[in-house]
């Protein structure tokens, strides 16, 4: 399983969600330390998120942090409506050279602020951007556009990670993506989504990999992990949480609505099943749940996802540096060397 962590470029770091901590605001040094810790712990990759209120621009950050790391892959989130595809291709090709071939792309079908597009039109634009990048980054011309010299010389197109639950999003994923990313869901929901996307891709003669984006709260015991999860959202004011969720450009998407529905199904403590905690979604849009438990329980949950067909997991936790270290020390050894590791 490919395991990735998350660098909090979007000021999404805290001891408690909804409680600002000036020491955890995005800065180059803080976010770079998260990346370096993830590399030290043995993570394969790190997600560099994109947004309009970021503390740090993720493209500039990727170029800088690539020179401070050696092995960890940089999964760069790109909003497909922001840049002319040829300009984006030049940026990505240059980044990939700086990083020695360690750049991957998480393509987001997001509108510009104030832009009003139907879901179909927005995803059609995304498909066009992906097709253009597919050519240019592989060293092929795209219509009248010639590929960047660097891309033409390297002839490497980074893998495309892409997600979305609407019909238009699923269609684009089946046609253009390499890895279909999901936000938290029940195991049954994950299985249904994989079956649907796998069938769509098969129909087109394509093969998809599947990824899962989720938070994690791991402690030495399950009781400690549950207490830590409860503490994480204990100070969150409901109105402040609603404001935080509404600020996101994707707040009206099908995927965000699905995260809200997941919270509606949870028990009084915010859990669906024993280990999926939905309370985090009260204070953030998008990925809104965490796997909570002791090291063996968290590793077993990831193993269940792997059995369903998930082979890439993007994790995060609060504070991101501390939880990265905890997961690396407590869970990664079980995945790499323990009985839960496939092939051990």
Write a structural description.
This protein is of the alpha/beta class. The chain has one domain: Luciferase-like domain (TIM Barrel, Alpha-Beta Barrel). Helix content is 44%, strand content 15%. It contains 13 helices and 11 strands. Strands 1-2-3-4-5-6-7-11 form an 8-stranded parallel β-barrel, surrounded by 8 helices. The longest helix has 19 residues, at 119-137. It is globular, with a radius of gyration of 19 Å. The protein starts with a strand and ends in a 7-residue tail after the last helix. Mean pLDDT is 90; it is low at 338-344.
Keywords:
globular, 8-stranded parallel β-barrel, alpha/beta, 11 strands, TIM Barrel, 13 helices, 344 residues, single chain, 15% strand, disordered C terminus
Q: Which range does the strand content fall in?
A: 15-25%
CATH architecture: Alpha-Beta Barrel
Strand order, biggest sheet?
1-2-3-4-5-6-7-11
Distance between the termini: 13 Å
Q: Mind sketching the topology for me?
A:
Blueprint (H helix, E strand, L loop, with lengths): L1 E5 L21 H14 L3 E4 L9 H9 L6 E7 L5 H14 L4 E6 L10 H19 L11 H6 L5 E4 L3 H10 L2 E4 L4 H17 L5 E10 L3 H12 L4 H9 L7 H12 L5 E2 L3 E2 L12 E4 L1 H14 L3 E5 L3 H11 L1 H6 L7
Parallel strand pairs: 1-2, 1-11, 2-3, 3-4, 4-5, 5-6, 6-7, 7-10, 7-11
Antiparallel strand pairs: 8-9, 9-10
């Amino acid at each position: 399983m490919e395991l990735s962590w998350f660098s909090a470029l979007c000021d999404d770091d805290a001891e408690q969600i909804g409680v600002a901590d000036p020491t955890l605001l995005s800065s180059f040094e803080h976010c770079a330390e998260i990346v370096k810790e993830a590399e030290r712990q043995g993570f394969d990759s790190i997600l560099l998120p994109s947004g309009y209120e970021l503390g740090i621009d993720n493209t500039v950050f990727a170029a800088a942090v690539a020179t401070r790391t050696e092995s960890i892959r940089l999964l760069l989130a790109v909003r497909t409506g922001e840049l002319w595809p040829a300009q984006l291709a030049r940026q990505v090709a240059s980044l990939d050279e700086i990083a020695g071939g360690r750049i991957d792309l998480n393509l987001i079908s997001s509108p510009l602020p104030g832009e009003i597009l139907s879901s179909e039109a927005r995803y059609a634009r995304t498909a066009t951007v992906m097709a253009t990048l597919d050519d240019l980054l592989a060293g092929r011309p795209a219509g009248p556009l010639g590929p960047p010299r660097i891309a033409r010389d390297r002839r490497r197109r980074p893998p495309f990670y892409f997600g979305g639950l609407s019909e238009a999003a699923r269609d684009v994923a089946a046609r253009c993506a390499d890895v279909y990313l999901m936000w938290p869901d029940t195991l049954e929901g994950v299985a249904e989504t994989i079956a649907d996307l796998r069938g769509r891709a098969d129909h087109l003669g394509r093969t998809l990999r599947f990824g899962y984006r989720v938070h994690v709260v791991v402690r030495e015991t399950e009781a400690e992990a549950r207490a830590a999860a409860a503490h994480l959202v204990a100070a969150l004011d409901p109105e402040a949480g609603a404001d935080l969720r509404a600020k996101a450009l994707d707040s009206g998407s099908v995927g965000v609505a699905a995260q809200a529905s997941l919270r509606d199904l949870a028990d009084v403590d915010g859990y669906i099943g024993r280990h999926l905690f939905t309370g985090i979604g009260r204070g953030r849009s998008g990925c809104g749940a965490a796997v909570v438990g002791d090291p063996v329980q968290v590793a077993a949950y990831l193993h269940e996802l792997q059995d369903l067909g998930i082979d890439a997991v993007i994790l995060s936790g609060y504070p991101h540096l501390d939880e990265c270290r905890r997961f690396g020390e407590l869970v990664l050894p079980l995945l790499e060397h323990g009985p839960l590791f496939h092939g051990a």
